[in-house]
Amino acid sequence: MVSSMYVLPGLLSLTVFLPAAGALVILALLRGQRAIRGFALLVGLADLLLALGVFILFDRSGDADRFQFIDRFHWISAETFNASYFLGVDGLSAPLVLLTGLLGFCAVIVSWRINFRVKEYFVWLLLLQTAVMGVFTSLDFLLFFLFWELELAPMYMLIATWGTGRKEYSAMKFLLFTILGSAFMLVGIIAVFLSQPGGSFDMTLLLESGSMLNGATAALPLGVMFWLFFAAFAVKLPTWPVHTWLPDAHTDAPTAASVMLAGVMLKMGGYGLLRVNVGMFPGEIRTFAWALILLGVISVLYGAIVTLRQTDLKRLIANSSVSHMGLVLVGIGSVGVAAGELTAVGLNGAALQLFTHGTITGLLFAGVGLIYDKAHTRYIPDLGGLAARMPVAAIALAIAGFASLGLPGLSGFVAEVLIFFGAFRAYPWPTVLAVLGIILAAGYILWMLERALFGPPRERFADLTDASFLEAVPLALLVISIVVVGVYPAFLTDVFNAGIAPMVEMINQGLNSPAVTPR
Predict the structure, then answer these.
(1) In the listed set 246, 280, 314, which residue is the last one of a domain according to the structure?
(2) Which regions of the chain are under pLDDT 70?
(3) pTM of the predicted structure, to 2 decimals
(4) What is the DSSP annotation of 337-377?
(5) Is the Cβ–Cβ distance between 282 and 210 less than 8 Å?
């Protein structure tokens, strides 16, 4: 049941809309670059503290209601059309709210050197944070779709205006791919609305009882509806073959946009898969699990192989994200287990991968952005010996790299182990192939670190300076998060399990359609 208790009413709405309110203040009242930067930093810090409050106060005990911090009122009321302003978090979304607050604060700091159209830059950056927060907290399908679309404009403007290289091309490619995916989602949402008695956009009705959708009353076949939503989320994740917008967008985006794009915007796709495809179509997810794990394995291997050929630091990290997001599909594929009841291990790993990949890639892009600001190049063959000139940045980049390749004691290892343990029960040989992607990851990460950071110092970099105190703050915050989760993963897995356990229970009940034998 959705909680009827309003624990700290308005806290979630404040967390979601504080960045947008800060953007309006900057747009209407503030003048001067220093004042704008300082105010944006205060807004980012305040939102991080609010997000941390939501995460800490979230009751993960078995006796607590599933959705908490509910903010709800009727938004559109009509005889046949009802939509609500409906926010809430469960164990799946609470950690992602924290992740958005953390990376939003870090994005403001790494933007400190922006000196072109500063007012507009921070307005778009803060609006982007509100949009992503809204996606992770919306429990009304129409509101979810509006927040999903809202993030397009800020990211497009950040890439097209403050990016480098083919920035207009990359921004438009990002926009076209994501709008196409959104069109599939809109059709799916309309079909869901028409399939429910009386019509409703209330996501909790489907999350609590998959029988709200059944073949007899569905506006479209349930399998079609499943794939409509999957298409939208696959583009955002992204997965092969709809991934090609990502390397261009990352390469040409400013550092803060890359941090937010890799850190939280890709996670919108994984979150949607877990929230909608797993949570609302329990029969279909078991039926089509083999297809998801197939796409996941292809993404893991394809992304890793392409990454091995990259010579640009940002493009290397971008292609590695395709590989690592493929692991999310592999974890979700664990629902295809043939014998016995499904356990939450693989899904927990997929959810944890969303958080850990967000902090790892956020740290990678922050470190690369710092190197580019100082050395004015991201071309790996031109780098070398940077560890001697920039030890703080080098240590942060190395820790992020080791976490990305799955070094025990760091957060990436925990997520990958959970995914592989869960998926192996359902699809042993595809899981073995996915493990090869981690072996390839060790190759390209170690190659990148050796070529860029170590070796004899180059004369052209003799005057490089290391990270300042302010520049080191986001590096330190992200390193701490990677180490804490790596050493004590229950900090997150206990929360994620509170959100995933109800999904697993529904799938085990075999709602909507029978499970199929894994291939």
Answers:
(1) 280
(2) 1-8, 62-64, 78-80, 209-219, 336-343, 510-519
(3) 0.93
(4) --SSPPPSHHHHHHHHHHHHHHHHHHHHHHHHHHHHHHHS-
(5) yes
State the residue range of the domain holding 28.
1-280
Quote the crossing angle between the two packed helices 118-137 and 11-28, to the nearest 10°: 160
**Are residues 353 and 323 part of one domain?**
yes
CA–CA separation, 372 and 378 (whole Å): 6
**Residue 241 to residue 239: CA distance in whole angstroms:** 6
Give DSSP secondary structure letters for 215-240.
Answer: TTT-SS-HHHHHHHHHHHHHHHTT-T
179-188 per-residue burial string, b: 16 or more CB within 10 A, e: under 16: eebbebbbbb
- Whether residues 289 and 274 share a domain: the answer is no
Number of structural domains found in the chain = 2
If asked whether residues 265 and 288 sit together in one domain, one would say: no
pLDDT of residue 481: 96
Distance CA 382, CA 427 (A): 43
Short-list 267, 319, 261, CA closest to 445? 319
3 state DSSP class of 117? coil
Residues 320 and 260 in one domain: no
Beta bridge partners of 379: 312
77 and 159 inside one domain: yes
Task: Dig out the tokens for 332 from the structure.
Answer: 């979700």
